[in-house]
Amino acid sequence: MIEDVTLITACMDRERNLAAVLPSWIASNPTRIIIVDWGSQKPLSHSSLQLAEGGEKIEIHRIEQRRWVASWAFNEALLRCSSTYVCKLDCEYIISPTIFQDHHCGTSEFLRGHWRYAPVGQQFINGAVLASLELLLTVGGYDERIVTYGAADGNLYHRLAEIGSGSALFHSGTITHIEQDAATRTENQHIGLEQQLAETLNTPVTTFLIRRNRLFVQYLPLWNQNALMQRLPRPCSLAMRPARERIALALATLECFDHFCRLKKLSADMQGSMAILSTILASPPVTTLYQGEVEESEPVGEYERLRNDLIATIQLQKTLIEHF
Known about the structure:
9 strands, 2 domains, elongated, Spore Coat Polysaccharide Biosynthesis Protein SpsA, Chain A, alpha/beta, 41% helix, 13% strand, 7-stranded mixed β-sheet
């Protein structure tokens, strides 16, 4: 049995799903339920979520934001916890009422969902994780440099495994998820350039983002508790981020693009991939992204900076290929 557990979640405009799953969360009898309402157009409330019985356990914290960044939102929930254990759930997850009675987890261990071993159609339970608050804080929670969909959960599990004493999977059937459209996974995110690249590659943008973000964090120091406590103020557009992060993102984007170019047989080597990418960066759709033909000013700087960093990275790669 796992005792003294806080359930945490964060959402943006997912009121209907959250209202549908909350009864199962309340039935599991956690110590508390913490919900971070990350800038939903219609603010969440106990009444909007149709909470009555068990509602006294639920805290709703409103954060005013227009851009969905899961790593930031879930860390806001994590930092409000004081229980021995924390169970992070997406707001589409339905859980068994006996989930905490059916599992064991030491304070240096963690439980997780895994897409590879999930029942057919349930691969998105990959985002469920339970660990001690101390362990989650030691690794710094989610890596807040990952600001789009893709690889944030896997990155967290890797860091937990590095310092923990063991891990296990949630028992089959104890967590299920409500089906959602793939497009909702990247809603309210600034991924215009990545969308253009993925379309050229005939690859789902979610697949592109997962691989790109995995490569991205490999170029950066390991995220930890110190990084969490010293994280940048928000909002933090790409144009405002440290040069190391911007260049790491450009390198990861180039490597990811090259991988899919070769996989799709669009090119045979890096030089061929760079030629295709250069053409895309000069194309009218991408040019439009950074010419200000959008409602908000923030994405303009992001697209322009990432585009410029990518061009500089391509030029550097060409020099390396020619001379080495």
